[in-house]
Amino acid sequence: VTALFAGPAFAEYPERPITVVVPFAAGGPTDTVTRLVAESMSKDLGQQVVVENAGGAGGTLGAGKVAQATPDGYTLLLHHIGMATSASLYRKLAYDPLNAFDYVGLVTDVPMILVAKPTFEPTDLKGVVDYVKANADKVNYANAGIGSASHLCGMLFMSAIKTKLTAVPYKGTGPALTDLMGGQVDVMCDQSTNVTNQIKEKKIKAYGTTTKTRIPALPDVPTGAEAGLPGFEVGIWHGLYAPKGTPKAAIDKLVPALQKALKDPVVVERFASLGTVPSSDADATPAALEAKLKSEIARWKPIIEAAGEYAD
Ligand code: MLT
């Protein structure tokens, strides 16, 4: 019956490779999560799921690109909490986050860590706060542009210590991490999926996590609350989207393929080694992602407005 109503084109969707756009540069946390999930989904769908990086403007360029793409099931977007925060950070977006996409499901919720270049003097988070307050005009912090997770975490940090630092924007925290390790930039708040190994290898310093309990993969890194910065909490949830109007027959193939990928032992193990866990079957659904996006747009709007100068 599906073939009859959906037309022959969808009898055996997908018939050709699928592109998943990552709205940040290659080598960063979003890219890492997406490549692991895409690789696993390819097995279930019987077609290559190819990752395309489209960075810029804190993820809004890549999101806009997918919002305008042909809704045929062959262009998807893997984006994170930035889809929600950008709605309040940008006065004019090329897309309406609540009307430009169809939803496949939630993918993972990633913790963040405040990290610094290896030569950064402070030895703990309190020391960082004191140093940053005393040297605000000299300390610069890296992010992936307004609307990125690293921007959001930076905003929360600066708001918490009432000190504004100079932001150095990158197309993703992959390239930003390279500069942090080289000392070209001083501090960054980034996702465990990007910085866990560099912290373990002592290529960068870690001061506190944005979680209520310590990250199992990083047992020696205190939580923000433990380290003297209560309320420094944020989880970077990720979702898989399609352009609005994507045939239901395609979505109905993508949802189980996503759920299967999130239970793939390779994905589960790699996520764990990078400090995160895959979303459950209940969360890897269109309804759960839609509900999350709607509630998060509402939640962050007043926080961003209250952050004012720290949000730009
Ligand atoms: C961010 O929002 O900071 C991005 O996740 C960075 C990235 O994925 O490169």
UniProtKB/TrEMBL annotation:
Pfam families: TctC
Swiss-Prot/TrEMBL keywords: Signal
Coiled-coil region: none
Top-level taxon of the source organism: Bacteria
InterPro entries for the chain: BUG, Bug_dom1
Family note: Belongs to the UPF0065 (bug) family.
Record PANTHER family: BLR1237 PROTEIN (PTHR42928:SF5), TRICARBOXYLATE-BINDING PROTEIN (PTHR42928)
Name of the protein in question: Tripartite tricarboxylate transporter substrate binding protein BugD
